[in-house]
Amino acid sequence: MSVATRHIPTPAPFGLRVQPSAEAVPEARRLVIQAVRRWELPLTEEALRDVELLASEVITNAVVHTAQTCQVSVRWTGMRLRVEVADTSAELPEAVGSEAEATSGRGLFLVDALATAWGMESLETGGKRTWFEVSSSAVASDSRPAALARAAQPPEPGEPLPSLTTA
User: Where are the domains of the chain?
Assistant: First the structure.
């Protein structure tokens, strides 16, 4: 007896432009999650929360550090949800250590801890694209506390993040 699997048609990619303002980030995050939920992908609620958090972090980095409009693209690869944020700055983001009491500076550590894969690449237009992917089993519930603890205790300055992919 075979087990039937539900075929998920590949939805058309979703994209939006985000204005260069920290106030625009919550709306962008909401629109990303709204599109993903509409697709009815095989992602757990925990994975959707990760997408929401990571989208917020990557979009915030783009608008805060460039003060320019950024382009957000979301697509289903058939196995993973991929979120890409393209901006006009050629400078690749750098994960830097932060003080334990700091309220910022941990965004890329969160991305590294919770994404199935992530990376950044320079664009021929002179900007860059930062992306992450999340699968339904991105961070299993039992390993989630350890992943978040890693993000709270970033590596020493200059120490690379273990799962960073650059093109």
Answer: 14-154
- The 10s digit of each residue's pLDDT in 41-80 is 999 999 999 999 999 999 999 999 899 999 999 999 988 9
Amino acid residing at 99: E
Secondary structure percentages of the chain, helix, strand, coil, to 5: 35, 20, 45
Bridge partners of residue 132, in order along the sequence: 83, 118
Report strand pairing: 117-122 vs 81-87.
Answer: unpaired
CATH T-level topology, domain 14-154: Heat Shock Protein 90 (3.30.565)
In tens, the pLDDT along 79-130 reads 899 999 999 998 877 665 555 444 445 688 889 889 999 999 999 989 999 9
**118: which strand partners?**
132, 164
Whether the Cβ atoms of residue 70 and residue 159 lie closer than 8 Å to each other: no
